[in-house]
Write a structure and sequence with these properties.
The complex is a heterodimer.
Chain A (H helix, E strand, L loop, with lengths): L1 H31 L12 H10 L5 H23 L5 E3 L6 E5 L1 H13 L4 E8 L3 E8 L3 E3 L12 E3 L7 H15 L7 E8 L5
Parallel strand pairs in A: 4-7
Antiparallel strand pairs in A: 1-2, 3-4, 5-6
Helix pairs in contact in A: 4-5
Chain B lengths: L3 E2 L9 H9 L6 H25 L5 H4 L6 H9 L1 H27 L6 E5 L5 E4 L1 H13 L4 E10 L4 E9 L5 H19 L7 E7 L9
Parallel strand pairs in B: 1-2, 5-6
Antiparallel strand pairs in B: 2-3, 4-5
Helix pairs in contact in B: 6-7
């Protein structure tokens, strides 16, 4: 959104300047050459005046123009309000040093830590300075190494245990551990949702 | 290249240095946001007013009048000179404001040089690119940092340094944060005559991902 605002700002400025130049040219022309009969140098004022004289406020084109103008204004206002920085501040290591990271970088760090767990097959992460949201999929339970005299067709066995933390708890613990390690200025909330996979790993 | 900067040593807990380091995090879009927001607000109000009037909210009689109201036209014609002067002033203001906004929005971010205090008869100027290269090169030597980029920002009176580092997958973020001021910035401060610059450090995670299949 910041890119859009950076592009829009000079374009709108140039558009305003162009309108101003047109106005100055037309006003000065009308002042110096009153014999033109109301027609401008660049703008057909006379034709515009005739159209506006006959057009009523209650007509459909005026309604549509008003609605379109209002919607465009609302979109510009939303773009301007949404173009603020979304940096994630870190604790400054010195008084004259400010340290920040981006939500994308924080999400990438969290994603790496979550995916490093054996029980997680995949994860998607969104992050901001206030919240970290993790959607992971993987296997519940613990991994039991294959025994030497066990069946050869199952390389590993997954065993659910009442004392073993579930996938969601395991992922949450990984995220909390990472957040403990990061010198974040404000600790974000952590939300974890998991999808348990069946079958062998 | 801009004019060299001659800054005094900043005290360790100078609130102005803290503010300047916060400003150095990224180029401010505040002015552009204000321009776009102001024009959007005006368009919203005019559009909403037009629609409300057209739909008869302010009375059906008002909605049945022509857009170019004869009462308004007569009023303008009766005060032709004043109307022209006001219109001319408004147009000139539009030209000046529009050009100023456009030029400021399109102007590249400044990179001030750094003047090092070398005595009353000697002037030593370190170019902004030299400062940036030195700091970025020093940062790249830290373990955990795969890439680093630095640049001078701000203006001639209040320069600052922006340092962006990309961390490797196995990097210890807290350790990197601790070592940057102790090793990178301290070395730069020594090299540039003991002058302490406000610094904004931007940490990014390198995009080189490990294998997804274990």
């Amino acid at each position: 959104m910041r890119v859009l605002v950076r592009i829009l700002a000079p374009l709108l400025g140039l558009a305003l300047a162009a309108v101003g130049v047109l106005g100055v040219v037309e006003i000065v022309t009308a002042w110096l050459q009153p014999g033109r009969g109301g027609d401008g140098l660049l703008v057909p004022w006379r034709a515009w005046q005739r159209a506006l004289d006959t057009q009523l406020w209650a007509t459909t084109p005026v309604k549509i123009t008003g609605i379109v103008l209002g919607v465009v204004g609302l979109l510009l206002l939303i773009a301007a309000l949404a173009a603020r920085r979304h940096d994630v501040p870190l604790r400054p290591p010195a008084p004259h040093v400010t340290v920040t990271t981006s939500p994308q970088a924080l999400a990438r760090m969290v994603g790496r830590r979550v995916r490093a767990a054996d029980a997680v097959s995949g994860a998607s992460v969104t992050a901001s300075r206030r919240a970290v949201s993790v959607r992971a999929e993987g296997w519940e339970g613990t991994v039991v190494p294959p025994s030497t005299d066990g069946p050869a067709e199952t390389p590993t066995d997954t065993r659910a245990d009442a004392d073993t933390p579930g996938l969601a708890d395991s992922v949450r613990a990984d995220v909390e551990s990472l957040l403990d390690d990061l010198p974040l200025a404000h600790r974000p909330r952590v939300a974890v949702s998991v999808r348990a996979l069946g079958g062998p790993r | 290249m801009s004019q060299p900067t001659d800054v005094g040593p900043a005290p360790a807990a100078d609130p102005r240095a803290e503010r300047r380091s916060r400003r150095a995090v990224a180029r401010s879009a505040g002015r552009e946001r204000r321009v776009v927001g102001l024009i959007g607000l005006i368009a919203l109000l005019v559009g909403a007013g037009t629609a409300l009037l057209a739909f008869g909210v302010f009375g059906s009689g008002r909605a049945q009048r022509p857009l170019l109201d004869p009462i308004l036209v007569d009023a303008l014609r009766s005060q032709a000179l004043i109307s022209r002067i006001v219109a001319l002033v408004v147009c000139v203001v539009l030209v000046v404001a529009g050009l100023v906004w456009a030029v400021r929005a399109l102007a590249p971010e400044r990179r001030p040089d750094l003047a090092v205090d070398a005595g009353p008869d000697t002037s030593v100027v370190v170019t902004s690119s030299a400062v940036a290269e030195a700091v970025a090169g020093q940062a790249r030597t830290l373990p955990g940092i795969s890439r680093a980029r630095a640049r001078m920002v701000g203006d001639e009176r209040e320069p600052a340094l922006r340092l962006t580092v990309w961390l490797a997958e196995d990097a210890d973020v807290a350790e990197v944060c601790r070592r940057i001021p102790e090793e990178v910035l301290a070395a730069a401060t020594d090299a540039f005559g003991g002058r302490v610059l406000p610094v904004a450090v931007r940490i990014e995670a390198d995009t080189a991902e490990g294998p997804r299949v274990r």
